[in-house]
Amino acid sequence: MKKQIDAFAQLLIDPKSFFKNDLETNDKNLFAIAMVVFCIGYGIDRMDRQLVKLDLRGTLDEFGFFNTWIGYWSISIIGGAIGGYILYLIGGWFYHVRVKWSKGKGDLDHSRRLYLFSNFYLYLSIALVSVCATLILSRPYDPYAEFSVFDGITGIVVILAIFYTIYISFSGVMSTTEAERTRAVIWFIVLPAFFYIVSFSALIALLAFEWF
């Protein structure tokens, strides 16, 4: 286990070295840990989005089980196991397409591994935030709760994780695929950052409209 902890620490501190040394490793435990975190984090993210959608539609009370911690974690884990693996396949394929558009080298499996490990700390932060919320809050989503310090801190953590994920991804592409830097900047920094900014802006606008 120490070997895997050291590898993930290197991914956080020095992603270029991780991708050069550990990306193609045959360490099944390293890959399994990354996949579990990826799937659970994805399931939680989709569940959070679904609760917001139900609230905006005024149907949250009709799906009360979703808004209990037992329901929240059950659906997140089961749904994440299925949806996360599908995302790994499809998202990894599109990641490979972006590598090729950037004139990079490598096969589809290599790109999927880049995609998986690049997103590790984003989905780990999402999962840890939900674990903390489970210990602190009475239910996963409270539409009447006022904005709290916990909301602010966790929001900052996730936002930082998102943009650090972009950096990790770019580092992996540049250190292992021989991609053209200008093209890689566009496909792996500019466009992902633009996508997240637009997504956050749309979500804030929807919530603001609902509140006011």
From TrEMBL:
Membrane topology field: Multi-pass membrane protein
Coiled-coil spans in chain: none
Pfam families per record: Yip1
Domain of life: Bacteria
Signal peptide residue numbers: none
Chain ranges passing through the membrane: 29-44, 70-95, 116-137, 149-173, 185-209
Protein's recorded name: Yip1 domain-containing protein
